[in-house]
Specification:
This protein is α+β, with helices and mostly antiparallel strands. Helix 3 packs antiparallel against helix 4 and helix 7 runs antiparallel to helix 11. The radius of gyration is 20 Å and the shape is globular. Helices cover 39% and strands 24% of the residues. The strands form 4 sheets. Strands 9, 10, 13, 17 and 18 form a 5-stranded mixed beta sheet that branches. Strands 11, 12, 14, 15 and 16 form a 5-stranded antiparallel beta sheet that branches. Strands 1, 2, 7 and 8 form a 4-stranded mixed beta sheet that branches. A hairpin with a 3-residue loop joins strand 14 and strand 15.
Length: 382
């Protein structure tokens, strides 16, 4: 697998219809010499209860940003999970990914006052335990594709990490990851239809795969066909104000100089950016209207990583319909699920270059999101 990411991952065809996500033909097994990375915030429920939503999302997105920057922007499969992230890397990229993870864990502890647990699990260990990791590429727009994962391997890796296996220790104090491009400048996005619904659906233990596939396809079909549900990002982009809500996080994500200096730099830069966006002023190849259009199209509000995750803007009636379907499927021993309703969504951005169209924007609920849905799922399983 010389060439790593370029050969395996970029060789997987991109599919555009989210309704096809359960088609096994779309998924390719990871090569035997690859490694899966997993990360999550320890006691994220407490952080959510303390209303530290942005900090939790910033930590999860930092994993993707740091590994991407460590790999010099090369494509690799990853998925953002709200309070963490998962990904896979080739042998050639493993050492760089390990260093990035260790540095990110240190940064999250020192600058966000959270504990980021991280692990690197060989695919051989996952397969020895009876699971697999298969990867597909979903294209939400012509500009971007991101990974979907199946096979149960991510769930196994996550459970192993929580048992303390395959751990990556934080880097020494003061180590700073390269988080270039990571920001959270936009305001929260209020629901336009009534409810921002966080959806998390996993297979029940020993569930029949065909039955699980039918439930996921049914839920996705209901959403796709309904005029009462959609992307939680407004067509004209999220609200933008100055100074931005995420000023402190963006300052802490920067390298070099004192924190006060970094705050001043971010204040100055974001004022310039706000002026360009507010008055639609093109600079060179950067055209604000085109960037906002790409931002909307590239928003990562639905995915599959051994389970279905969605952040939907929908009516209360559709939310109730989705819950009724999941209640029935859970009673039949097919799924485990968690739902969380809130009044707004939020966005964390990873834009390595505004001159390129492949920037990605991670969406979560603004009042607990995926982490709260996971808490509901765990409580229901007890």
């Amino acid at each position: 697998m010389a060439g790593g990411s370029e050969i395996f991952y970029s060789g997987i065809p991109v599919f555009r219809s989210f309704a096809r996500l359960m088609d096994p033909a779309l998924y390719a097994p990871l090569p035997d010499d690859w490694t899966v990375g997993v990360a999550d915030i320890v006691e994220s429920t407490k952080a959510i209860a303390a209303q530290r939503y942005k900090a939790v999302n910033m930590a999860g997105a930092a994993v993707v940003a740091s590994v991407t920057n460590a790999l010099d922007g090369r494509e690799f499969p990853f998925v953002f999970g709200g309070d963490g992230a998962s990904f896979a890397v080739s042998p050639a990229d493993l050492d760089k990914a390990r260093e990035a993870l260790a540095a990110t864990a240190r940064w999250v502890r020192d600058d966000l006052d959270l504990v980021l647990r991280v692990a690197l699990v060989p695919i051989t260990a996952i397969r020895a335990a009876g699971f697999d990791v298969r990867v597909a590429r979903f294209g939400p727009s012509a500009n971007l594709s991101y990974a979907m994962f199946a096979g149960g391997g991510l769930a196994y890796a996550d459970a192993a990490m929580k048992r303390g296996e395959f751990a990556v220790d934080p880097a020494p104090p003061g180590t700073q990851p390269d988080l270039s491009g990571l920001s959270c400048r936009f305001e929260v996005m209020p629901s336009a239809r009534g409810v921002i619904l966080s959806v998390l659906v996993l297979p029940a233990k020993d569930a029949d795969p065909a039955s699980f596939r039918r439930v996921i396809e049914d839920i996705v079909g209901r959403v796709e066909k309904s005029p009462d549900a959609g992307r939680p990002v407004p067509a004209n982009g999220p609200p933008l104000r100055w100074p931005p809500q995420g000023l402190e996080y963006e300052a802490r994500a920067r390298r070099g100089g004192s924190l006060a200096l970094r705050r001043a730099v971010v204040l100055t830069f974001t004022l310039w950016a706000y002026t360009l966006m507010r008055f639609n002023i093109p600079i060179g190849k950067f055209v604000p209207k085109a960037y906002v259009r790409q931002l909307v199209e590239n928003s990562d509000f639905r995915k599959f990583d051994d389970g279905l995750r969605m952040i939907l803007d929908c009516t209360a009636e559709l939310a109730a319909d989705i819950e009724q379907r999941l209640v029935a499927a859970a009673a039949q021993g097919v799924v485990r699920y968690g739902l969380h309703e809130q009044d707004a969504a939020m966005m964390t951005c990873f834009t390595p270059s505004v001159m390129r169209a492949d920037h990605v924007h991670f969406i979560d609920g603004a009042r607990g999101g995926y982490a709260s849905a996971a808490t509901v799922l765990k409580a229901r399983a007890v």
